[in-house]
Design goal:
The protein is mainly α. It has helices spanning 2-40, 45-68, 71-82, 85-106, 122-129, 145-173, 177-185, 190-201, 203-218, 222-227, 242-251, 256-286.
Amino acid sequence: MPSTNSSVTGVEGLYKAFVPFLIGCVGLLWVLVAGQLLAKRPTAQGPDQLRKAGWGLASLAGVWFVIAANPTGMVSSLARSASRPLTIGVLALTVGAALATRFMWSRPVAQHFGTTRATIGWINYLLDLVGVTDAGAGQGWLTDRSTALLSMVVVFAWMQFGFNTVLYLAGHQGVPKELYEAAEIDGANPWQIFRRITVPQLRATTFYVVVTTSILALQLFDIVWILSLPEAGGPGFATQTPVLTLYLEAFRENKQGYASALAWILFIGIFGLTSIQFRSQRDEASSGGLS
């Protein structure tokens, strides 16, 4: 009997989750079909009504799903989590980092110091102070085709640096201390210890960092979208990433089929790159390169 009751409970849970999900997918499918029809006939009334009906159906399915998922317990759980100091601190740091990124690269800084220099951004202001650039000249890091993509790369590396540092610190704490003690007894210098012990012992961590960072770089969207506005991917397509291209083709040009093909190509590329990295790691481990 207990197994029967658990089976019934599982079926009911699956029903509550699957039915609104299926209805929501149908509504979104209507929206996609309506978008294709509107691309061919922008003034047609039928496709526009179909799109509105699709959004309404998907919204009702979402509300149905939330109600079926015990909203009282979910809301109370979210309220408890949001009231924790750690959660508040993490949210504050996340929002602060995003605002600092935008402020550092594009906010007029000179006005805060009571000067008339037309310097834009903290980096230009510091370069101006040390005399690298002419007073008030200011390099257009995000508006110049030659530096826009480099600026995006620097911002992406800066945002990933902290998390990857934590990973390396955690991996370094797992290195046996006996290895360092034995190396010091044998008379190894710091460079030899780093090269012969630290780097090989952190090879698994390095492999994880390289894989995850590569995937994030290929999926880059938010940084480019925020920093390149009002011309997404600009200037002159200099910062257009694969995911940004996918988004523009799907939701601005209404080419969902072409965007789906791009998504599959991106998936195959990421999967192939990850497979090559896994194969390389396995070959090093089998040949004794990974200690």
